[in-house]
């Protein structure tokens, strides 16, 4: 079972998180999500446990538990349906042609020279 763990203290290490879950059974993997630029924890992660009943017991007992002064959130991680993936192009509609001016044709940049 894949388990989401949120509201983690930024100082917690993956080994500490693994240890907390191993008290309930075998742990396949632990991953604390970090910012790709700073390397700092984003305050959440995922734990994979092969035995669903052990994983559920860990969820039941650790959800709301205090870790380094913070109440953590622990629940079953549900994969997002493919249609709900986050889009990174931030397309909010409207004109995306860029440039400047209002592009209404002509080439007048404010220096109307009048007929020579």
TrEMBL record:
UniProt xrefs under SUPFAM superfamilies: RNA-binding domain, RBD
Classification via Pfam families: RRM_1
Gene Ontology MF term list: RNA binding
RRM domain: residues covered: 1-79
Residue spans of biased composition, Gly residues class: 96-105
Compositionally biased residues, Basic and acidic residues: 77-87, 106-116
Keyword line: RNA-binding
Positions of region (Disordered): 70-116
Signal sequence bounds: none
InterPro entries with a match to the protein in the record: Nucleotide-bd_a/b_plait_sf, RBD_domain_sf, RRM2_NsCP33-like, RRM_dom, SLIRP/GR-RBP-like
CDD domains: RRM2_NsCP33_like (cd21608)
Protein name (database record): RNA-binding protein
